[in-house]
Amino acid sequence: xxxxxxxxxSEFVIEFPDNFLLIDLCGEHDRNLAKIEERLGIQIARRxxxxxxxxxxxxxxxxxxxxxSLYSRLESGRGIEAGDIDRELRMGNSEKETAxxxxxQMEMFKGGPVExxxxxxxxxxxxxxxxxxxxxxxxxxxxxGIGPAGTGKTYLAVAVGxxxxxxxxxxxxxxxRPAVEAGEKLGFLPGDMKDKVDPYMQPLYxxxxxxxPGKQTAKLIEEKKIEIAPLAFMRGRTxxxxxxxxxxxxxATTMQMKMFLTRxxxxxxxxxTGDRSQVDLPRGVDSGLxxxxxxxxxxxxxxxxxxxxKDVVRHPLVAAIIEAYDADASRK
Length: 332
Description:
alpha/beta; Rossmann fold; about 15% strand; globular
């Protein structure tokens, strides 16, 4: 473990016993240190196996906590990616307060960091809102994730679905979206029905590709262990022993939302994600997401998690864009 060394003036020194891990901590051309410096407004200098933090005391303390946490990650045999640094800068010690058991992820909230284990990689929430959302996805039979683009609502939901499928808690994964943009023009698109609707389902395929090997995904789709279909295809079904995700739910009508929610069968879990600021329904048609939010709040085993521009984990400009549009809307 690193050792803190207090020095006079405005320097804060941390000693790292393993030089090889320290190299990984700093990153190629010290890019990891540069990211921490930029975010916290401090300077970090390396002298031997010491890192010297120079700047405001509060920022020094936060920087030291981030560096120590990342070093501990390396000691446990895990690597450091840009997302890991971003997560530590956003969340700090709150990440260590509640977490799942190392074994079965259905037994949550004790031990190490909150993690979602998939076939290809381990996913970790990068903001406090994301952490609370993941906890509720494991904990509740019906969960809503509401907020702007880029906050990980669908990505994390699919990751939890894959994790629960791998562990045998569900028999299948069902991913759905309203094909609102297609409308009556769907029939003019070339190909069979799958060819027509696949472009609207592509974000769900993209998420799956991050968690499962391509050949395994194709095999599971062929065996109908994974289904990706438009919302309209859900009518008349009972979805039992499945992890079900409805994406872009703001584009479901009130009747479609009621239809979808009442598909929930025994042994299933359902996640509804949406962005209230991106409704593509025709003028005068109410969003089913807004009605569900109004009607279902307060019902046990149904959770609502909300995200803001501060939870955006895409390019930093995405958060700035969302904040600019929100500010403009509030002035109208």
